Amino acid sequence: MQMVRYNPWGVGELQNQINRLFSDWDDTDSSGATAGWVPTVDIQEFDSRFRLYVDVPGVNPDDVEITLDSGVLTISGERDRPPVPEGEQMVNRRSERGHGQFHRRFILPDTVDADNVKASDRNGVLEISIPKQAKAQPRRIKVAA
Amino acid sequence: MSTMNQLRQGLSKAWDTVADGWRELRELAGDALTRFQPKTSRGEVETAEDRIVTRASRWGLLAAEVADNDDRVQVMLEVPGLEADDIDIEVRDDVLVVRGEKKLAREETKGQYHVMERAYGRFERAIRLPVPVEDDGAKAKYRNGVLTVSLPKSRSARARRISVES
Q1: Per-domain residue ranges for chain B?
Q2: Which of B57, B63, B67 is the closest to A96 by Cβ?
Q3: Beta carbons of B59 and A96 less than 8 Å apart
Q4: A12: pLDDT confidence band, cut at 50, 70 and 90?
């Protein structure tokens, strides 16, 4: 009979996942030491624009500030503790959520169009669309016969 | 005292500090690390979305907060990027189980990913409740990516004030 080592999800795979989880925080120090928590981000690039997805659960969209200054995109804001209704004293039993300030910074190519950045918030996810300048977009050149 | 002994003591002290810190962190937030299972359509044609999802992180932090007062237990869970219909809540004895699926909802999948920290797929988070709760009268709402579940305490668990007769 052949012996097969018990390997729940592949230990190497798990190790990779954990490394990935922590490595992002180590090398890109875009979160800052003063931040109370760090939102996770996806950045996708298309021919004509960049698109960012930022997880900001429990953050009021009005409390988010997005700036793009000479190629540096800064997303910052604050998450407050939810207000306790009058006369209702709650006792905390478990507290995993981070509160307070957050900020992340990304360097984008200077070909982005800083005047046309659009942002929206849906179900705690911030979606930011940053178009590239027209001259930076790839163009197909036809060869004349 | 020999240098070796001093060193040994110092090390053991340092280790205790680390172990204490780790224990505290685990107790406070260790459960928040949640595994995301990407939905794989085995044998079927792999879509562009499938490919992106399997490349994404398999772990996400779903941070929870549990609080209670005399009558009810309130659980808040951070689950951004879902629709209310995608969330499934169940109470099993004194454990609240939240299941859901974070879908990759993209109108375009052709782009190139530079940073991918968010996890996608199915997840399950079990949160132990401090006291037994009543099944009836539980309420849940999903707003701004935060799920709030309010559960009435069972009759026996409710705090009762007993007045002292003079």
Answers
A1: 1-30, 36-157
A2: B63
A3: no
A4: low
Beta carbons within 8 Å of A29's beta carbon, 6+ residues apart: none
| Cα gap B46→A21, rounded to integer Å | 26
> For residues B75 and B81, what is the distance between their CA atoms, to the nearest angstrom?
19
Q: What is the ipTM of this complex?
A: 0.71
What distance in Å separates residue B8's CA from the closest CA in chain A? 30
pLDDT of A89 strictly over 90:
no
Measured CA to CA, the distance from residue A58 to residue A124 in angstroms comes to 6
Domain boundaries, chain A: 30-80+100-137
What is the DSSP code (8-state) at residue A81?
A: P
Any CB–CB contact under 8 A between B65 and chain A?
A: yes
Q: In A, which residues are within 8 Å of B80 by CB distance?
A: 55-57, 123-125
Query: Best residue in A37, A42, A137 to probe B by mutation, most B CBs within 10 Å?
Result: A42
Report the mean per-residue pLDDT for chain B: 83
The DSSP symbol for A136 reads: G
Q: Does domain A30-80+100-137 have CATH number 3.40.50.740?
A: no
**In this structure, which topology does domain B36-157 adopt according to CATH?**
Immunoglobulin-like (2.60.40)
d(CA A93, CA A140): 60
CA-to-CA distance for B38 and B126, rounded, in angstroms?
19
Gyration radius from chain B CA atoms: 23
